[in-house]
Amino acid sequence: MTISQTAFLLLSIAVQLVSSTEEQCNMECNSTSRSVGPTRPWQAVDALKNQLNLTRPYPHYIAEVDVNEGRYHFATFCQLGCTLFFLSSETGERALDPKKQSTTKTNTTLARCINKCDETYRYNISVGYSDLAEIARLECRDGCQIALKRCQPGYYCNQVTFDNSTTTTGEIPQYSGGDMIPCGAGTYRDVAYDAVTECIPCPPNHYREVIEGRDISGCSKCPAGTSAVLPGSTSIKDCFRCRAGSFSTEASYCVCITPNACADDQLPSPADAEKKDTVPYIGRW
Fold first, then answer.
1. How many whole angstroms separate alpha carbon 140 and alpha carbon 133?
2. What is the DSSP pairing of strand 206-207 with strand 220-221?
3. Labelling 1: which of 62, 120, 206, 247 has CA 20 to 30 A away?
């Protein structure tokens, strides 16, 4: 099976996961103004500062100088990286194997994606090096990094940071981060590609009890007669009944029925305790 056939096979496996985010990642792979790459094999390190440990391409085929480079469809390998990134997430792995409890925690989503690229494009040839094969591998890695910068709705992605403490010793700085994490209860994240590192709290008087909120419409409104003042409420239990003399319409702040209705001297006497069971309270007009 050729490299191109392998790429298309893996892409077809994940067709059910294709989303606007992945499509945008694929489009960027074909763009001349990528946020990452294209990474070429004769650099000492890749975009993540990983040591490539590659020989010089000469006397092997040098892909960069080929005027017909487009015929190798390098963007296809980058697009495979887009797919592998989302397959490397916990949600992606569960989609392929529903019995899978959780993804491996020893590596980030980005690291797992890169490992899959390296595994997909490993080779064993007599010359010991193939410039075209290395470009396929590094294009795939680029796709992983572009996907990280895009990030799926319903998740936030912490970006890569580098530990430069080893620069004085001559070692390659190590990176950390690069994980895709579900938005917690009470929050959401849409397809805003300029804000991928954190989720947005549901607005006041709304709540969300489950994770992976994809847009603000996933935040439920507090019932009429109740209010949740703080943003990011995680349960309907955070929607408290309006105090005596006040009311709310659906998903709005509690307001006084009349200008004087909320005054303490208007509170019902103990003898009128049953009035507290009415909304709004009887006798507060």
1. 11
2. antiparallel
3. 62
Q: Is 43 part of a structural domain of the chain?
A: yes
Give pLDDT tens digits for 221-256: 999 889 998 899 999 999 998 887 888 887 788 888
Q: What backbone phi and psi angles, to 5 degrees, belong to 193?
A: -75, -10
Structural domains counted in the chain:
1
**Residue at 93 is within a domain:** yes
| 282: Cβ contacts below 8 Å, ≥ 6 apart | 272, 275
Three-class secondary structure of residue 160 per DSSP:
coil
Give 36's contacts (C-beta < 8 A, 6+ positions apart).
47, 142, 145, 146, 149
- Would you say 209 and 234 are in contact if contact means Cβ atoms under 8 Å apart? yes
Encode pLDDT of 167-212 as tens digits: 556 667 778 889 999 999 999 999 888 889 999 999 999 999 999 9
